[in-house]
Write a structure and sequence with these properties.
About 40% of the residues lie in helices and about 10% in strands. It is of the alpha/beta class and about 325 residues long.
């Protein structure tokens, strides 16, 4: 009797970009290799099976091949400040440049010794070198996670490698944006997990931030329907510990001055916070986002993108504008 699961459709069963990333990482850890494009083009299990390749050894760094082929040097995306690289899948689908696209992972964090950003960057470079041993290297990153891309570039440049492209997607210089409290970090982590329901449950979760632990916040989100009943809360708590360690590394990172060109794709609308008065809202009309303090202002190519910090990537129309702008920047750098 045929197995009915062979006809299961990933997206019809509720699959989305974050689940796709988790599925790709688990497959890589098992020695099974396929790309995000394979999954999107063959979402039915029996179709996807024909595209899966066996690796001689399972990857221990799980670099996600979003688009594994192309005639130009690869474009490497780093995860956000919450360890999420699911944003890459939708964006890469719209980038019209003939180059491979990879999503880089966070390396395993040492629970005993909190990592420095320099140490994290060194580990990620080992994964990059497995795919592209020599430059020129091209990177892109969204939000505070892109500071990791800058730290990676710092080490590559010090080793006399060439970094030919650096795309920042709404990234502020850390010194200008590193004053968030631990409670704010916890709230943002939980809201990030809520995905498209983020705005709907924002106010409810904000009310519970100050007096709640991360476990309690996640349980609250699940109780009010912002997270699915079967959502793995234990896994989220473990991930939050990594997020906390990463943000600690960000706070201690002293951003050096690099002779590098930065393409800053900044949100044209402010990200509204219910806790901050309107006249104190985080402004997104400052194109350089503070980076002209460490990089020559003439080396910053600032491009406005419709939407705020969240919707410039999550809204399909805004994302297409962003992808087109990144594509044009990549073409000019060829």
């Amino acid at each position: 009797m045929a197995d009915p699961a062979r006809n299961d459709h990933f997206f019809e069963l509720g699959g989305h970009s974050l689940l796709a990333v988790q599925m790709l990482i688990r497959a890589l850890n098992l020695g099974l290799s396929f790309s995000a494009i394979d999954l999107f083009r063959a979402p039915v299990l029996k179709q996807l099976a024909s595209k899966i390749r066996l690796q001689v050894q399972p990857s221990n760094r799980a670099v996600i091949p979003v688009r594994p082929t192309g005639s130009q040097p690869p474009l490497f995306f780093v995860p956000t400040g919450f360890g999420d690289c699911s944003y890459v899948l939708g964006l890469a689908a719209e980038i019209d440049v003939d180059c491979p696209v990879y999503a880089l992972p966070w390396p395993p964090f040492d629970d005993v010794r909190p990592p420095t950003l320099e140490a994290v960057a060194a580990e990620v470079i080992l994964a990059i070198k497995q795919i592209q041993p020599r430059g020129p290297y091209r990177f892109a990153g969204y939000s505070s996670g892109a500071i990791l891309a800058y730290a990676i570039a710092e080490q590559l440049l010090s080793a006399d490698e060439v970094v030919s492209f650096m795309a920042f997607i709404d990234v502020s210089l850390p010194a200008a944006s590193s004053n968030g409290s631990l409670k704010n970090l916890a709230r943002e982590f939980v809201l990030d997990r809520c995905g498209i329901l983020r705005d709907e449950f924002h106010e409810v979760l904000e009310c519970n931030t100050e007096q709640s632990s991360i476990s309690e916040l996640l349980e609250k989100a699940q109780k009010i329907g912002a997270l699915a009943p079967d959502h793995d809360l234990h896994s989220d708590v473990s991930m939050y510990q990594k997020v906390d360690a990463f943000h600690s590394a960000l706070r201690s990172y002293r951003v050096p001055s690099l002779a590098i060109e930065i393409h800053q794709f900044y949100a044209s609308e402010p990200l509204i916070s219910h806790q901050v008065p309107p006249d104190k809202q985080l402004r997104s009309d400052l194109p350089n986002q503070g980076w002209d303090r460490v990089v020559n202002a003439e080396a910053i190519r600032a491009v406005p993108v419709p939407g705020n910090h969240a919707t410039m990537v999550s809204n399909p129309e805004n994302r297409r504008v962003l992808a087109r702008a990144i594509s044009e920047a990549l073409d000019r750098g060829c």
